[in-house]
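Example 3.2
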Amino acid sequence: MTCFSSKQKSAKYLILVSLCFAASAGAAYDAGWTRSNCSTYSYHGLNERYVYGGNKGWIDNNSWDSSSIEGVDCASYVCRCLALPSYVAENKSAAYPYSTSKLYAGVPHLVRINNVQNLQPWDIWVWRAEYGGPSTGHTGLVKELTSSSIVTREALSASIGVVERTRRKQDMVDWGCRFYRRDNWTAGSTDTGTDTGTDTGTDTGTGTGTDTSPTQTTIDNGASGTSSTGTWGVSSGSGCYGSNSLWARNGATYSWRFTPPSAGTYQVYMWWTAYSSRGTAVPVTISNAAGTASLTINQQTNGGKWNLLGTYYFSASGTVKLTALGSYPTSSCADAVRFVKVDSTKPESVMDNGGSGTSYTGTWGISGGSGSYGSNSLWARAAASYRWTFTPAQTGRYEVSLWWTQYSSRGTSIPVQVRHGAGTANLSINQQADGGQWNVLGTYPMTGGQPGYVEIDTAGDGSTACADAIRVRWISD
């Protein structure tokens, strides 16, 4: 922070008073204002009184004076520091036109910045409670930036006044903050450009684009083929694919449109960043040749890596769509989607219950649940396990899926083990849902000629478990 002697401060005060009266006496907006002016003027208000309503000036003596002559609220402070229309001079009582609700919606001479990573000193931030903010409304200036934080200048409260604060970028994003930059900064402003993209329609943000080969297509956020509705901000969640990931809430949607290089069966993967506010049941739909598949994903876990959503046939364009349900503080992440073509000439094995390679412990009976694979499915309640043992013909990565039938007594946390080439994966599945279809458990490395298995166990809580069929499908070398 710049320090001034008493004489310097008095001289600075006289210069600023002249500047401020000149700006407000004539044109409603001072196009000659620079970032340097904003920096000096915002410092000029530090430690002075805050008066809700914004129709006061301040006296530059760093002490608490009468509220009848001194103080600005948060919106008035920002308008004055940026020389926006109808900002008023030192110690001059006058109304101003912009509340936090108006600033949030956008006002003349402010340009929207959609990426928190693109902020520069003396941009502004503003939040509103109806869009996730922690209070009715608040705004302030960006003084300095670090990789994860913003040092602000803001009129904080009647008891605290105009102060500097350090705020986390991710908090401000999660609070639904909008960011703006004053236009037409003049010489000395070191303006490096503005982001004029919008939050609806086609996303024009920066990402790593679309990476396409005959067997694999990766679509990052912001690439060609992506689109969105609602408001999406850049997330501070770590482990993004490419340069960034996005976040939203309140029903915003994000879509990745995929045109396959050739018709065929494709695995669909999604990448997201984990964060403490992420949803645990984020809706995702996958439009493919057979229709639209609906599923939910838990974004509290498995961030920073590819997560398999399932395997689908695409003959023409298809779409993966994520919906950011929930209000503050819940958020959802949109990052990247990958489509990997399954080689139909490579091996796939389906093992039904009762077939070669199956074994069990305990008592299993024929289930009355509908939608079995083959002629029937099995059930058990007391301590019991069912195992399907397979031996892959060649080394590679394999997708392992499980088929079960639903029934009212089924458990919601049924233990499953997948033995693979690198160890054993321990899973828990909900057999109250998704019966009568293949459910992907994951993709795992397998060694040719080395046996693996899938084993399901009863939960031991009085619920029943279903054993029906497994599918092991080669994916890649």
